[in-house]
């Protein structure tokens, strides 16, 4: 066995395709999906609050 770390890596045979550690097209990260949902909800709540502030300000004429 040589001291070269490149030699220690086993290369797959040319017939079989290399498998990725995480198939990002099929497995959407759960934490990212939860964060995206939370940001969408928070963004809509903030937009609704600002809308109510403008409506309340316009009604006080």
UniProtKB/TrEMBL annotation:
Residues 1-23 are annotated as: Disordered. Keywords: Membrane, Transmembrane, Transmembrane helix. It holds the Pfam family DUF6126. The keyword Transmembrane applies. The chain crosses the membrane at residues 32-54. InterPro entries: DUF6126. This is Small hydrophobic protein. It comes from Streptomyces camponoticapitis.
């Amino acid at each position: 066995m040589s001291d070269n770390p490149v030699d220690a890596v086993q290369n797959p045979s040319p017939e079989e395709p290399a498998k990725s550690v995480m198939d990002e097209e099929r497995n959407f990260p759960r934490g990212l999906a939860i964060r995206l949902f939370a940001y969408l909800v928070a963004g809509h709540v903030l937009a609704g609050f600002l809308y109510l502030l403008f409506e309340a300000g316009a009604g006080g004429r």
